[in-house]
Amino acid sequence: xxxxxxxxxxxxxxxxxxxxxxxxxxxxxxxxxxxxxxxxxxxxxxxxxxxxxxxxxxxxxxxxxxxxxxxxxxxxxxxxxxxxxxxxxxxxxxxxxxxxxxxxxxxxxxxxxxxxxxxxxxxxxxxxxxxxxxxxxxxxxxxxxxxxxxxxxxxxxxxxxxxxxxxxxxxxxxxxxxxxxxxxxxxxxxxxxxxxxxxxxxxxxxxxxxxxxxxxxxxxxxxxxxxxxxxxxxxxxxxxxxxxxxxxxxxxxxxxxxxxxxxxxxxxxxxxxxxxxxxxxxxxxxxxxxxxxxxxxxxxxxxxxxxxxxxxxxxxxxxxxxxxxxxxxxxxxxxxxxxxxxxxxxxxxxxxxxxxxxxxxxxxxx
Length: 366
Prior knowledge:
47% of the residues lie in helices and 19% in strands.
């Protein structure tokens, strides 16, 4: 088991057994270099994660009046190794109401999230940068605002369902390895590096050639600062209230399991025996002579002159039925063989009556 698999299993075990959705928050391409500024890099990247989680949790609080949960992961690179900070989030499709009940929901207002997210990012930059630096990047902020009339891109499909462990494994792949996998490096000659990538605009596989110095440079800028956490928890997944939320969710999930058991009992398909008793009024597995009960092992059907097991209760029953079918076939074969043998004997044995008829038929007529 790889490190990504172990991490995803560990995190999934620590999350609630409810539906989750994968949400991705991105920023305008013209703002990426601002997040590379040494003085503000850590503050801006942490703020990017905090603001993304806040936007989602506030939207849930306003629309559904619940407190949801978010596990956010920061990715800083794209397929071409460009600096592209974006936030992957696993969001609970439900939350805790003020009275301590769990309430599910099935929709995220992603159009509204785009506008909220755009405003949050622009305000984050303005309040983090110094007045002089803010004045320098002001044209970038204005262009980013005008170029995205509907807000920054947020990928949150209306009705998406994602397997939790698979999603966590996908996210962890980028957290537990470098920005580029070894199998993507096509050529290295000591001076240049040629690597492949998938162009998302054309959906085609392309290659890109860089000098060794430039290649090392684009790799090192994706190394997070010391003690910087690229995975953070918010809402009911926050470390501060996780213990309390686990107690609340344990009560909720226990009630859900009890209701599921009751529902299964109501919707359970009746067996063949139960249907026979209900319709005909007798138990087909009870012997009418001695009163003992038979054990239903399965059914066999005749196919191409042979008995085939159509259904068996379990492996032992199938083995027993195959043995019975073989014995029946063997007995049928022996019976047919004896009948054929008797018929052949009758045809071949000496018969005085038959010989007399032959003799009389060959005598000359007077």
